[in-house]
Amino acid sequence: EADHPRAAEPYYKVEIGPLQRLPHPIPSKRLRRITFIPTTLERMLRAEEINDLWDRGSREERL
């Protein structure tokens, strides 16, 4: 928006490509709603079940 107070400041634009299907689904042993899991591509590709996506030392896992 041209009249925004920070309209002249630099910004970043991030674009991603199309979604890619995983070679296999990542099942959850317990039914639960999950909206977001901070993870890495390596964990996602090696995961055998949903709990493998979490970083075991993360703050979220300790909750």
Question: Any key phrases for this structure?
Answer:
63 residues; mainly alpha; 2 helices; 16% helix
Describe the structure.
There is one protein chain. The protein contains two helices and no strands. It has helices at residues 41-46, 59-62. It has a domain at 22-63. The model has no long low-confidence stretch (mean pLDDT 86). The chain is elongated and about 50 Å long. The relative contact order is 0.16. It is mostly helical. Helix content is 16%, strand content 0%.
Total strands: the figure is 0
Low-confidence stretches: none
Individual helix count: 2
* Alpha carbon gyration radius: 18 Å
The proportion of strand residues reads under 5%
Helix share of residues? 10-25%
What's the main sheet like? none
Overall mean pLDDT score?
86
Oligomer: single chain
End-to-end Cα distance: 40 Å
Based on helices, strands and strand pairing, what is the structural class? Answer: mainly alpha
Shape: elongated
Topology as a string of helices (H) and strands (E)? HH
